[in-house]
């Protein structure tokens, strides 16, 4: 049996140490956190969730989500800006148009840089989900790609191989030729991030092989288009 002093001491309830308060995020930081969580959610599950379910999945209340984004379309547009527009590098266009350097070298630099952006899991999967269910998001990006990249590449190819300006139909055929290269690189990301298939570890070497085949065939392809 313990003494009265011991009993008194043992009956005391330990007071937990105070915890530091959770820091409040600035509105800009909170918005960015919501966007980053939405990117991960859309990449994995697509755009089918309701606003209520989306708020639950990304770990915020629906009223808080509405404070920053009045509807799911507004959040999807913000994700588009974050994943596609903010990662677009204006220097890519300058690289392709720099005639002080050989065209093959310019294409190498562009596609090596560009592939590091588009072969990311969130980029690939959101692009596929958007193409299936969010009409308009992909078309905005593809219009930019055609005007700022494909048209520049074609102009440089015509100059490189001394080919005349195309008719409207020839131009569309040329666009398909460039699409063949671009799609071959994009498909590497599809195999990995959508199909779950293995891809070569040395992506840079793989891209160089595709570029070499593209440049080797370009003179005959452009001339055959004009026949």
TrEMBL record:
Keywords of the record, alphabetical order, are: DNA-binding, Repressor, Transcription, Transcription regulation
Region (Disordered) location: 1-27
What SUPFAM superfamilies does the record point to?
Homeodomain-like
The HTH tetR-type domain extends over: 28-87
Please give the DNA-binding region boundaries: 50-69
The keyword Transcription appears for this protein? yes
Q: Which InterPro entries match?
A: DNA-bd_HTH_TetR-type_CS, Homeodomain-like_sf, HTH-type_TetR-like_transc_reg, HTH_TetR
Q: Which Pfam families match?
A: TetR_N
Xref: PROSITE patterns: HTH_TETR_1, HTH_TETR_2
Tell me which domain of life the UniProt entry assigns to the organism this sequence originates from: Bacteria
The record's section on PANTHER family has:
BLR6905 PROTEIN (PTHR30055:SF181), HTH-TYPE TRANSCRIPTIONAL REGULATOR RUTR (PTHR30055)
Protein name, please? TetR family transcriptional regulator
Q: What is the scientific name of the source organism? A: Duganella margarita
